[in-house]
């Protein structure tokens, strides 16, 4: 009798050990109170104010500026900002960058979260910090992906959000 496949995904990157991620259990053992309070109702209860769309756009631009400054201060490499306004309801901006090592990737993410806390009123939510290959920092209207270069090349996340090339006529 054959064993069922485990609920995880493994990634092999040249020169690196095999990394496996258990998506079923990801985050459940390390959940923090902030992880449970990042919904709109709780943010309103904490004193966040509703604003019109123009003010929200200005706020996302302010957060983007803080993110870019923090990444520059921490020597993040190959920083790319992608305007998601009108393309996604999840966020207004996506920032993709690289760190030279797992340690630098983790450090960039931790410092970014610390620097954003006064602006956001709470710590930015992070995923992937334990592995240090790819850390996602959720700052509300700005999503930041911090990769090791090999992992960034493997996933090519920027291609997903680039404008499509015009169709070419074959004949």
Automatic annotation (TrEMBL):
Record localization: Cytoplasm
InterPro entries per UniProt: Iojap/RsfS/C7orf30, NT_sf
SUPFAM superfamilies: Nucleotidyltransferase
Keyword line: Cytoplasm, Repressor, Translation regulation
Molecular function in Gene Ontology: ribosomal large subunit binding
UniProt GO BP: cytosolic ribosome assembly; negative regulation of ribosome biogenesis; negative regulation of translation
Source domain of life: Bacteria
GO cellular component entries: cytoplasm
Keyword Lipoprotein: no
Binding partners and assembly: Interacts with ribosomal protein uL14 (rplN).
Family: Belongs to the Iojap/RsfS family.
Function: Functions as a ribosomal silencing factor. Interacts with ribosomal protein uL14 (rplN), blocking formation of intersubunit bridge B8. Prevents association of the 30S and 50S ribosomal subunits and the formation of functional ribosomes, thus repressing translation.
Protein's recorded name: Ribosomal silencing factor RsfS
UniProt organism field: Jannaschia seohaensis
């Amino acid at each position: 009798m054959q064993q069922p496949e485990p609920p995880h995904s493994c990634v092999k990157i040249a020169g690196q050990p095999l990394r496996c991620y258990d998506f079923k259990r990801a985050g459940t053992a390390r959940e923090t109170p902030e992880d449970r309070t990042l919904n709109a109702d709780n943010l309103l209860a904490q004193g966040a104010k509703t604003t019109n769309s123009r003010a929200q756009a200005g706020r996302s631009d302010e957060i983007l500026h803080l993110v870019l400054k923090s990444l520059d201060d921490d020597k993040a490499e190959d920083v790319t900002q992608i305007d998601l306004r009108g393309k996604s309801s999840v966020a207004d901006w996506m920032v993709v960058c690289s760190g030279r090592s797992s340690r630098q990737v983790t450090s960039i993410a931790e410092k970014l979260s610390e620097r954003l806390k006064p602006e956001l009123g709470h710590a930015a939510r992070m995923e992937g910090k334990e592995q240090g290959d790819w850390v996602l920092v959720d700052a509300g209207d700005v999503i930041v992906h911090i990769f090791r270069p090999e992992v960034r090349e493997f996933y090519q996340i920027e291609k997903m959000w680039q404008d499509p090339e015009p169709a070419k006529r074959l004949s």
